Amino acid sequence: MESESTVTTCYRHPKVESYVRCTRCDRYICPDCMREAAVGHQCVECVKEGARSVRQARTVFGGRITVAPLVTYVLIGLNVLAYLGELVRPALVDRFEMLGAMLVGPDGGSYHWQASYPADFHAEGVVAGEWYRLLTGAFLHLPATEGTFGILHIVMNMMVLWNLGRVVEAQLGRVRYLALYLLSALGGSVLVLLISPEDHTVGASGAIFGLGAAYWVMARRLGGDMNSVNRFMAGLLLWLVISAWATSWEGHLGGLLAGGVVTLAYAYAPRDRRRDLVQAAACVGLLVLLAVLSVGKVTGLTG
Question: Which of 3, 27, 196, 220 sits CB 3.0–4.6 Å from 11 for a disulfide?
Fold first, then answer.
């Protein structure tokens, strides 16, 4: 009497005969479920599990390796869109520019800030609870026909953002890079609030100066050619001094300092499981400090 052979089927497709086993889980798999492996074939689930268990490559600063500078593209796009919005509706500049404290009279004119003012006047700026100005001003630029630079203001800023941003984002990864950019922009606005609360300021320069500081710190950490990097940094600082008569040096300096602090935390955090926590704590700590300084200044202005 002959014994009947057992028919084996694919574990994912029970109606399909199969005589090949997954080299990882030892289950039978059909041709549709086979994936090439170093030795033999693996099933779909084992391939996915293996991909999850593979450690993702990271930079010295903990960022994930990325191919395209997506965040830099998005930031440039937002700045350009905001600029187009200004051209269509110029009132957007007055509504969202960085302004710490100003009084608006019944005639619509702007007047110097004072804590006590007549009932027919009203406050404008951060002192009026418009806290969003601390960040929105960093995405606006001088209208094409105004100021010393006009349209060159956004053109120059976007060119520097394109050149610096791609380098910094590639090293930091998208999340760390975005945190650096926003904190640098915020740092510039806060220093404007602290020193020159009545100034009207716009532009991504504070954030870009933060990227400049990041570029210098990263080069030091990576052991790069500091001669060229130092020349770049000297030029950046020289521009900060020379442009002080026409631009907000407070915004530039604030962005530079904030960007330097954040990148120092990125660069010298322990290279173990504590790294992400230390880096996140540094960013949150700086954010809290900027918030406390802002609230303190507003409280002092409003009496």
Answer: 27
pLDDT band, residue 225 (cuts 50/70/90):
confident
Amino acid at 159: M
Judge whether 180 and 211 are in contact, CB under 8 Å. Answer: yes
φ and ψ of 16, to 5 deg: -105, 120
Tell me if residue 64 falls in helix, strand or coil: strand
Q: Which residue is associated with the tokens 């933060």?
A: 210
Stated pTM of the model: 0.80
Query: Which helix H or strand E contains 29, and what residues bound it?
Result: strand 28-29
**DSSP character at residue 101:** -
Residue-range domains of the chain with CATH: 1-54 (no CATH), 70-302 (1.20.1540.10)
Q: Which helix (H) or strand (E) holds 41?
A: strand 41-42
Q: How confident is the model at residue 50 (pLDDT cuts 50, 70, 90)?
A: confident
Paired tokens of 32: 């549709």
CB-based burial, 270-289: b 16+ in 10 Å, e otherwise: eeeeebeeebeebbeebbee
- Per residue in 8-19, pLDDT (tens digit) is 888 999 888 888
Pick the closest to residue 76 from 133, 137, 139 (CA basis): 139
CA Rg value for the chain? 28
